[in-house]
């Protein structure tokens, strides 16, 4: 192994929320390549940006020479983790979970290296062992190592028990045993020595540490990354308009990019530390110079580009840059039909157009104007443009207004847009 100290790197990037026996773990990974894992339950058809930190942390370990294992919870997703949940999850069928599992498996394969080298990443599904389990054997051989007193006092359980409107079912209560058993099986069959996860998983991870120690007399380790909560108390990645997904079909790369462009200025350098692989010295230098020529805006763009490239790749980042040039800098030359389809998906408001009389009617239908009179005043005042070109009179749309025969960008001023889809 190299002299690079990964634990120090994670600490310098504020990426460690909890860690068990840090000194021993540090010595272990300095001398040996280890296997580690992180679990993802397929409770939706895509991961979202709340999953990025553990994924990136797995990537950091792999770059340092360790073997990452992704455990997809095809079985545990049928139960539902009560951590950070105010009420029980909606249960989904085996059929649905299997479809989501395959989609997430393909999604995760993009983020880690599966090239067949010694520390090549591996994806497993815990259904492979839970489908074979005998309930009586499980309760006798595993359940006896769990104290009800301890389980009740875990924050995920306690906050639900103390609520009069939402209790906790035995189904959810048992989740802690199942995740601990995952760690036990992975340690036994794949020599996994470390589990990572969000900080809300510390109770479940601790149970796995304890189970392995009591059954196998072996020391294994746990590490959690921060669970990011927004100022409104909602988990990071949830917005008023919904979740920011990693799947381009659910959240377009352009909208994904804009999410990062719209974060609070106070988070820019912290997010550069935890979400990117940019050298920490460069990040600190950027932060020191943030007030020079309003550099923080450029650094926010630097952050957005880095994360968009990591999640969606260079090709989609170039598409995002073309769209940005089109909308904000009136550069229409390089725009592509696929870029406009991104805008139609979720980038800006859009409306389907069949037949409209004229520009005034389009402004009203697109909600850029409240009435034809207001629309006419906007046109006269030279604040309306079609495909970035200023229009100073009401007129009927023609075929030249339809980009690729399908789209027209209607704008009021610099920031208010609507895509007309013919």
Automatic annotation (TrEMBL):
Its main location: cytoplasm. A motif ('KMSKS' region) lies at residues 235-239. GO terms for cellular component: cytosol. Catalyzes the attachment of tyrosine to tRNA(Tyr) in a two-step reaction: tyrosine is first activated by ATP to form Tyr-AMP and then transferred to the acceptor end of tRNA(Tyr). Transmembrane segments: none annotated. Pfam families: SYY_C-terminal, tRNA-synt_1b. One of its GO terms (molecular function) is tyrosine-tRNA ligase activity. It catalyses: tRNA(Tyr) + L-tyrosine + ATP = L-tyrosyl-tRNA(Tyr) + AMP + diphosphate + H(+). This is Tyrosine--tRNA ligase. The keyword ATP-binding applies. It is found in: Cytoplasm. The keyword Cytoplasm applies. One of its GO terms (biological process) is tyrosyl-tRNA aminoacylation. Residues 339-420 form the Tyrosine--tRNA ligase SYY-like C-terminal domain. ATP binds at residue 238. Its EC number is 6.1.1.1. The gene is tyrs. It is an enzyme of class 6 (ligase).
